[in-house]
Design brief:
This protein is 26% helix and 15% strand. The two termini are 19 Å apart. The protein is an alpha+beta fold and 46 residues long.
Length: 46
């Protein structure tokens, strides 16, 4: 899971074995659900 500041700058990331694990961590840390996320293409921003 990648984290960004309000200004859009990278401020860290965490590794999770599965996508459900990442969603669970996001719910725990930020109160977010799966519907709060958007899929991004691997080559986005290149």
């Amino acid at each position: 899971m990648f984290r960004y500041t309000d200004a859009g700058e990278s401020c860290g990331d965490t590794w999770h074995a599965t996508l459900p694990d990442a969603f669970s961590q996001a719910a725990f840390e930020y109160g977010l659900s799966e519907s709060d996320f958007a899929e991004v293409a691997e080559d986005a921003g290149r």
